Amino acid sequence: MNHLDPIDCILCRCHGEIDGIVDFDPLRRQLEADPRVRTVDVFDALCQGDAVEKLAWRVLCRKDRKVLIAACSVLARGGELVDGLCKHGIDPSRLMVADIREGCAWIHGDHPGQATRKAADIIRMGICALRNREVSGDVKIRVQPSVLVVGAGPAGLAAAAALGRAGVAVDLVEAGGHPGGMLNRLSRVAPGDRIPEKILAPLLETLQANPTIRVHTRTRVTDIRGSAGDFTVTLAGKDGDTRTRAGAVIVATGAKPVLPRGHYRYGRLPGVISGMALEKNLKDGLTENGNTVFIQCVDVRNEKRPYCSAVCCPAALKNAIRLKRTDPGAKVTILHRDIMSPGSLLEAEYRRATRAGVRFIRFDPEDPPRIQGDDRVTGVRVTDVLAGEERHLEAGRVVLSTPLEPRGKTDREDPVMNAIGLAVDTHGFYRVLPFLHTVETTAAGVFVCGAARWPVLVDGAMAQGKAAAAKALNLVAHAVRQASGLIGFQERRFGCARISQKTCSGCGNCVAVCPYDACALEQTKDGLRAAVNPVRCMGCGSCAAVCPNGSASLPEMSAKTMVRMIANAFAPETPAVPGGDVGAAGRPVDAGK
Fold first, then answer.
1. Tens of pLDDT along 13-50?
2. Which parts of 320-475 are beta strand (E)?
3. Which range marks the domain in which residue 92 is found?
4. Which of 159, 171, 229, 357 could form a disulfide with 143 if both were Cys (CB 3.0 to 4.6 A apart)?
5. Each residue's pLDDT tens digit, 526-543
6. Which ranges carry the 4Fe-4S ferredoxin-type domain (predicted)?
7. Same domain, 346 and 461
């Protein structure tokens, strides 16, 4: 298959979504007159009926020809179309999708003439890119048939149990002495006022009954090496250091509650306690009767922590209801900036609180409540912003609702982030990929669930643990995988970066900018040279963008190819030289240079 051979063009009408704006008649005439194009076919809708089978049959009959498909974006159905063709045995390097729907017809609906000209430019650039495309090399990875789960809270337990039921070997690592995480510290679980032990029981039974799950308590992960499919993990436990191997890693290290130090006389005035202290009292049966005031959003939704922790309001609602049931005569009040109770279940919890007699008063964060009392709490003064008046609430106890925050970034507290190089968001929580990939990280084979990725209630943490288990199972279920297929958030990567060892100067720019930790400097006989890990590389092209001498490149989209594409965008409608790409004003661009 010569890169100068003419290609086949496929135009998709998309049931009129495209050709209702883009005029296919002149577009087709231009393509048929283009010497770089062998054939032009029009389909009504490539994503409907048996269109993929028909297209696959045509492509297979035309042997090694390359095919440009002008249709919707790869982020819409274009990617699924390529995947469908690949399932029929077609090499994806022969295929390219040019977006003439979202990026053209849809956004230029009021200007069909301009949309048609733009579609011609996009297709012409796609032809140039496809003809000059090289193919990245790929490697096969022998996958370890086991998974490492770090953290045995509700998310980690749910992940380990799901994998164990699927017959996968699991190493469950817990820094504490007992599995359960935050559930061990709660008196009840919201919504529904459920007993934590009843939630934990079936998960712990699975751990005890399943021989494929090995539980390591009082153990920490001190080092992780390798890549997706084959990680080498060092564990430091009560019996010393041990090593294990895993094909995937699930991070479920959770978060920690913030202590309200420096707020509302906490630690200085008896009766002012944290939400977690109230949980402990309730769990130990030390509930004291009397009036109670909850203050929400303590040390959160401010400059230091500009986020809503999502779990504080449900916890306060749950505990306020319990206090009213224990002592119906007590006055229980929740002072809030906004009550966060999304979803039908939490909304029902809020309504149960109001029916139980819990009072709600909204305050202005610029005018926070004032704690009354000398030797201990006697009450709270607060300005009710809805009523526009100041209220005095008699109370013997004030409960400060504080957020969850990341566990930290030190080697002792967070070795996984340091060992694997996981990215964190601006608040310090593990960053996951957006949209539909909520447990996948930028490190292939590493998944995050539970409060390690964001504060979450127990049910949500367990659901995320199961989701992470499904992703990990999909990875380790195959003994051998192609490196390009280890990427969970896309069917296949665009390409794999290549670095010329002859011209690399070892400056390290590529190492500094790579978001996937795929580039590294290695000592060679000629000095430091950059190298690419083909398993971790996602083909983003950051290394090529910062390389000062062009040593780093993406074979699928080299700098020379992009220059030719730009030249084709300003070319006349029909190339001037048969078999060659064209430049501005019809000047030929030699594809061999």
1. 999 999 999 999 999 999 999 999 999 999 999 988 88
2. 332-336, 359-362, 370-372, 379-384, 389-394, 397-400, 404-405, 446-448
3. 1-134+558-593
4. 229
5. 899 999 998 888 888 999
6. 495-524, 528-557
7. no
